[in-house]
Amino acid sequence: MNENKSGTPDAFAGEFLSFTLGDEHYGVDILKVQEIRGYDSVTRVPDAPDYIKGVINLRGTIVPVIDLRLKLHLAEARYDSFTVMIVLNVEERVVGIVVDGVSDVIPLSHDQVRPTPEFGAAVDTRFISGIGTVDERMLILLDIETLLDSADLVAEELEAAA
């Protein structure tokens, strides 16, 4: 991975799909987004962790669905007319993530991305690849591969059970 003058890896520059969880704005690499759809019912799978809402059948593909608010230990998830499912294609796997709402696609240059701050052992920042700044707004950029790898074993078990 190459680095630019600011020391930020080149992989950070690009376009990010902006979405909200509570009052915070997050971003995920737009190249990983397969589709955006309204949240509809999922088939629950017994013994799955709370953040795994279940599975859906997306045109013949069984897709595990993760509630990102629960996965990131944020306040209790609410489901309303604004709740959205972002279907991601990550490392040849299709996964749905449930978010509060989708904002827009935001292009970020290297100068607009800062490294993840160090919080020590009290805060798990493995899932955060950086902080994007757009005007006065900050965008928490998610490392979706790391996030989904942490749920990997569970998702594979769900796919096998479905």
From TrEMBL:
<protein>
    <recommendedName>
        <fullName>Chemotaxis protein CheW</fullName>
    </recommendedName>
</protein>
<dbReference type="Pfam" id="PF01584">
    <property type="entry name" value="CheW"/>
</dbReference>
<feature type="domain" description="CheW-like">
    <location>
        <begin position="13"/>
        <end position="153"/>
    </location>
</feature>
<dbReference type="InterPro" id="IPR039315">
    <property type="entry name" value="CheW"/>
</dbReference>
<dbReference type="InterPro" id="IPR002545">
    <property type="entry name" value="CheW-lke_dom"/>
</dbReference>
<dbReference type="InterPro" id="IPR036061">
    <property type="entry name" value="CheW-like_dom_sf"/>
</dbReference>
<keyword id="KW-0963">Cytoplasm</keyword>
